Amino acid sequence: MRLHADLDYLCFREIDWVKVKGKTKPVELYEIFNHDSKEDQELKKRAGSQILRGLTQRRRKEWDKAIAAFEKSLSIFPEDQVAKHHIKNCQLLRHMDLPEDWDGSIELDHK
User: Fold this and answer.
1) How far apart (Å, rounded) are the C-alpha atoms in residues 67 and 93?
2) What torsion, rounded to 10 degrees, do the Cα atoms 65, 66, 71, 74 define?
3) CA–CA separation, 66 vs 54, rounded Å?
């Protein structure tokens, strides 16, 4: 089977940076949402820029700015579970003792 070189047929957005077992650098996670309704696809596309903005702020440990971006994403698409997840994560991360060189990624639990 041959893969398409042109990915324009996919509806997707970046949703996180995570560290996985065996890797030292974060891996980008994407959500593919071709199966969603056309309305939800459009909302997820519009909200995606705020998700990226929030992830960038999270990387910088700018928790209030990150949360504000994720909340703006929710104002665009109120049912967005990705934004809700990131708000909770930022609220937890802001109280953790993270290393100075933290790259903004979340380690996946391997249990």
Assistant:
1) 11
2) 140
3) 4
Distance CA 27, CA 92 (A): 21
Q: Is there a contact between 59 and 90 (Cβ–Cβ < 8 Å)?
A: no
Q: Which tokens is 42 given? A: 């459009």
The reported pTM is 0.85
Cα 50 to Cα 47: distance, rounded to the nearest angstrom: 5
Strand order in the sheet with 27-32: 27-32, 12-19, 106-107
What are the tens digits of pLDDT across the range 33-89? 999 999 999 999 999 999 999 999 999 999 999 999 999 999 999 999 999 999 999
Q: Where are the domains of the chain?
A: 12-107
Rounded to whole angstroms, the Cα distance separating 77 from 40 reads 8
Q: Which amino acid is at 40?
A: D
